[in-house]
Design a protein that fits this description.
Layout (H helix, E strand, L loop, with lengths): L1 E7 L4 E7 L4 E9 L7 E6 L5 E4 L5 H12 L13 E8 L10 E2 L2 H9 L8 H14 L5 E5 L9 H4 L5 H7 L8 H15 L7 E6 L5 E6 L2 E5 L22 H9 L3 H10 L2 H6 L5 H9 L3 H25 L4 E5 H6 L1 H8 L21 E2 L8 E4 L4 H12 L2
Parallel strand pairs: 1-6, 6-8, 9-12, 12-14
Antiparallel strand pairs: 1-2, 2-3, 3-4, 4-5, 7-8, 9-10, 10-11, 13-14
Length: 397
């Protein structure tokens, strides 16, 4: 069974083609600069060098056709016919309160996704364009939507509500939604497999740390709290996002700097975080290098990030009444040895201790717990695309 997984952005389209009989990747790629000069496709057939082709790609419809043609190409193709495609799975950023799990896409589902556009105006429209483009190109191939927000729909109301007048929730569904749900779902279940216990009996804290980061409390396999909120801006310091700030800071900056709300939004989402504090880069690797060379602002940014993560770990251990497993995943979580060490330092009182030698690992599964650690500390590379492919296989037929 061959399943195509698609992740549409506003000007990009990532894809992977899976052979789900073996859960192996046959090909993957990226279409960049859709609707912009210099558009191109980067396509990699497993075992071969990447093919790069520059060509005009005015919209997502053309991008989808290019992907399908490339998958059938003579040199780097893996399909002899599109009839080999069993189903297509889509990453959809926001499902609001309508979707607590992945679903097979039909007209009603597509309309519900469109109703969520005000909640994710930068992401859902691109996801919708991808679905509609596939529907036109492959009208008889089933499609499945996998939502970033779905895993967090198990949060209790006291965890997802904000302390603003209740009417805003009734009218506009203003609440905490959380994101990276597919990643948190995947790594929490893999963690249970690694420790050899049923997930229903475990209290797990998953740290998805990358350019965008979120921490989630997973109790008995269900998300009970998460650091991102109504938007992906909330929570810990990120690459260019501020994370949590005092809401009164926004009107103060707006008045003193004479900035409009769009400018404030840009400030918090694109000019803050590691970039805003360090003045060096939004990439933690660059910031860590600058800190090692004595850059005090870079070191401050590193310290703030590690402190933020540690606070959420402690808070979620309290919320769940303990913790059995702590998981690090995504680009920073999987690769930054100093971040993992700094976050775990001083958490002995929670039973969290890591072995420095075991922690000397990047980009692969590892148990980095010290021998006397009561909590298992794991590094687990996330695989959101495989999770989407699995759900697509389960739901498409």
């Amino acid at each position: 069974m061959k399943i195509l997984v698609i992740n549409c952005g506003s000007s990009s389209l990532k894809y992977q083609l899976f052979d789900m009989d073996h859960e192996s990747v046959l090909a993957k790629g990226l279409v960049e600069r859709i609707g912009i000069d210099g558009s191109q496709i980067k396509h990699t057939k497993t075992g071969l060098e990447t093919l790069v082709k520059q060509t005009p790609i005015p919209d997502h419809k053309v991008a989808i056709k290019l992907v399908l043609d490339t998958l059938q190409g003579s040199s780097h193709g893996v399909l002899t016919s599109l009839d080999e495609l069993s189903a297509v799975g889509h990453r959809i950023v926001h499902g609001g309160e309508d979707f607590a799990s992945s679903v097979k896409i039909d007209a009603k589902v597509l309309e519900a996704v469109k109703r969520c556009v005000p909640l994710a105006p930068l992401h859902n429209p691109a996801n919708i364009m991808g679905i509609e483009a596939v529907l036109e190109a492959l009208p008889n191939v089933p499609q499945v939507g996998v939502f970033d927000t779905a895993f967090h729909q198990t949060m209790p109301q006291h965890a997802f509500m904000y302390g603003v007048p209740y009417g805003y929730y009734e009218k506009y569904k203003v609440r905490r939604y959380g994101f990276h749900g597919t990643s948190h779902y995947f790594v929490s279940r893999r963690a249970a497999e690694m420790v050899g216990q049923p997930i229903e009996k475990l209290k797990i804290i998953t740290c998805h740390l990358g350019n965008g980061s979120s921490i989630t409390a997973v109790n008995g396999g269900k998300s009970v709290d998460t650091s991102m909120g109504f938007t992906p801006l909330a929570g810990v310091l990120m690459g260019t996002r501020s994370g949590d700030v005092d809401p009164a800071l926004l009107p103060f900056i707006a008045k003193t700097e004479k900035m409009g709300m769009d400018e404030i939004d840009m400030l918090l989402n694109k000019k803050s975080g590691l970039l805003g504090i360090s003045g060096t880069s939004s990439d933690l690797r660059d910031v860590e290098d600058a800190a090692l060379k004595g850059d005090k602002r870079a070191q401050l940014a590193v310290n703030m990030l590690n402190y933020d993560i540690k606070k959420f770990v402690g808070a979620y251990a309290a919320a769940m009444g303990g913790v059995d497993v702590l998981v690090f995943t995504a680009g920073v979580g999987e690769n930054s040895i100093p971040t993992r060490a700094a976050v775990c330092e001083g958490l002995d009182f929670l039973g969290i201790k890591i072995d420095p030698e075991k922690n000397d690992v990047r980009g692969k599964e590892a148990d980095i717990s010290a021998a006397d650690s009561r909590v298992r500390v794991l590094v687990i590379p996330t695989n959101e695309e495989l999770m989407i492919a699995r759900d697509t296989k389960r739901l498409a037929f």
